Amino acid sequence: MTNLSLNKLQDEAKKIRRAVVEMIYKAQTGHPGGSLSAVEILVALYFETMKESDRFFLSNGHVCPALYAVMAEKGLISKESLSTYSSLGSPLQGHPERTKLKGIENTSGPLGIGLAQAAGYAAIKKDTTVYCMTSDGEHNEGNHWEAVNFAAKYKLNNLIQFVDKNNIQIEGTTDEIMPLGNLKEKYISSNWNVIEIDGHDFNEILTAVGKAKSEKGKSTVIIANTMFGKGMSFMEGNPDWHAKAPNDEEYQKAMEELNK
Amino acid sequence: MKSIRDGFGEALVEIGHKNPDVVVLTADLAESTRVKEFAEAFPDRFFQVGVAEQALVTVAAGMALAGKIPFTTSYAVFSPGRTWEQIKITAALNDVPVKIIGAHAGFGASMYGATHQSLEDIALMRVIPNMVVVSPCDYEEAKKATISIAGNGKPSYLRLARQESPELTTPLRQGFEGQEFEIGKANTLYEGRDPQVAIIGCGPILSEALSAAKDLKEMGIETIVINNHTIKPIDDIAITNAARICEAIVTVEEHQIMGGLGSAVSEVVCQTHPVPIEFIGVHDCFGESSLDPMELWEKFGLKSKNIVEAVKKVLARKNA
């Protein structure tokens, strides 16, 4: 089913991880944990799934280093521009802005407001497949659940939501900060089509998208179980890496791990 | 140098020891809004609501209805940014002492870009009846302001800056010399002889105002620098006096010009003693990412040199 071989996709993911760490190290600001957990989903969407007419809404905008890196690998922005991330005058803002960077569908960062915009777009552009990525943490926000109801009511089968379920939010695990309950059951009872996958497995991601596209009367949520800080042993599963830049030593370690 | 948010966090622990009715709620930002120490000292009086700012404020209102004094903390862009109507109804119209603490106000979250920079919060809060609005200028004043709003019995907004900033006021120690702090009473930070212009500001940007006053003195232009820490209720007596003495005003704030401190000062003098005013602040545009907040002060014209220019301009208008 893949145009690119699995190896090629994995290779892209590796390149994106390297670019993410480099950007955040260079700027000494950014959100590595969530950026790294989202890599395979973004690579699958941008390198395999999305057609030019499709739209992608990023809701948890703080993971934009991963999106910027994917856009650079894809040739939508220059690779050189990645080193300007968060600097004065850069189109690559600390949180992505649609008026500053072509290819960004919606300005984002403040949580819980991305799915609603994606749903609004999908309600008008019925022939467009609208993808939206959200975080599990932002399921704390009421606005998010208002959009869940809207999408169900209007049977937006052209809306496909990926939840990057890395189980971590700013100050701890989602269980510690605000337990989500059974997310799968919540979406089922909200009348969504629900698929649960390993969010780092390209075959599972692509199979899930295929199923979502054939859904006739419901929006689909793909609950992607991921590892926060995926690929960097010292970041994996550690909430300290929500918004922290690696120091020189950590950067060296990250690069060594990426080169393995 | 210490930060305004640190002053808030330390004072909150002090208040916690004195007043068992003080409770604290945060929306997944205990560390950066500096309430972690309170949470550790008083775990039974601390509530982590998750990234749910609307619940943050409305749950706090319920606690206030039950007799508590809740301090709610988030970044100013989220609360009061996202929570405006909830604040209006459940805190202000109910008239209960919910404290809205807006952290990283102004350009403090410079690296995170426009989405995380709060340049509208003073306007949002001062338009709501019953609401008290305070913007402390340094670490010490943040402590005093925190203690004051804890005991004022009113819904109150406290604006906090993220970065460390110069000390402009003195510690408040009972029985010792110290700059008094009273909600609604502006303080004079500098008063030149026969001042020609009053510079009225709030927040850490007052350090730029003082630096401008020094440069202007060397140029032979004397000024008064007023720390108008309470935007609401505003000190109309102090502002009117300044207008009468100087016959020209420059306002200084790390906030949009529209609806902020400058607007509040204008509303006063228009009715009591109209004089020419120039405004230092953000002129109807969004912020942007920068690795250093001072780069943004520079870009958006909030530096001492900009204040010097504004003083010269308002003097020319006054003398025209």
Distance between the termini of chain B: 42 Å
The spatial strand order of the largest sheet of chain B comes to 3-2-4-5-7-6-12
Overall number of structural domains of chain A: 1
Helix-strand makeup class of chain B: alpha/beta
| Named CATH architecture of the largest domain in chain B | 3-Layer(aba) Sandwich
Low-pLDDT segments of chain A? none
Strands of the widest sheet of chain A, in order across it, are 1-2-3-7-6
What's the tally of helices of chain B? 11
Helix share, percent of chain B: 25-40%
Largest sheet of chain B: 7 strands, mixed
Assigned CATH superfamily of chain A: Thiamin diphosphate (ThDP)-binding fold, Pyr/PP domains
Which quaternary structure do these chains form?
heterodimer
Per CATH, the architecture of chain A is: 3-Layer(aba) Sandwich
Question: How is the biggest beta sheet of chain A arranged?
Answer: 5 strands, parallel
Contiguous runs where pLDDT drops below 50 for at least 5 residues of chain B: none
The value of Rg of chain A in angstroms is: 17 Å
Summarize the structure.
Chain A has 260 residues and is an alpha/beta fold. Chain A has helices at residues 6-27, 32-37, 39-49, 64-73, 114-124, 142-153, 174-177, 183-189, 202-214, 248-259, and strands at 55-58, 130-135, 159-165, 168-169, 172-173, 193-198, 220-225. Chain A has a single domain (6-259), classed as Thiamin diphosphate (ThDP)-binding fold, Pyr/PP domains (Rossmann fold, 3-Layer(aba) Sandwich), CATH 3.40.50.
Characterise this structure.
The complex is a heterodimer of chains A (260) and B (320). The two termini of chain A are 28 Å apart. In chain A, strand 6, helix 9 and strand 7 form a beta-alpha-beta unit. Chain A has a single domain, classed as 3-Layer(aba) Sandwich (Rossmann fold), CATH 3.40.50. Chain A has 260 residues and is an alpha/beta fold. In chain A, helix 1 packs across helix 4, helix 1 runs antiparallel to helix 10 and helix 3 crosses helix 9. The mean pLDDT of chain A is 96. Chain B is α/β, with parallel strands linked by helices. In chain B, the strands form three sheets. Chain B has a seven-stranded mixed β-sheet with strand order 3-2-4-5-7-6-12, with helices on both faces. Chain B has a five-stranded mixed β-sheet with strand order 9-11-10-13-14, with helices on both faces. A two-stranded antiparallel ribbon of chain B has the order 1-8. The mean pLDDT of chain B is 96. Chains A and B meet through loops of A and helix 3 and helix 10 of B.
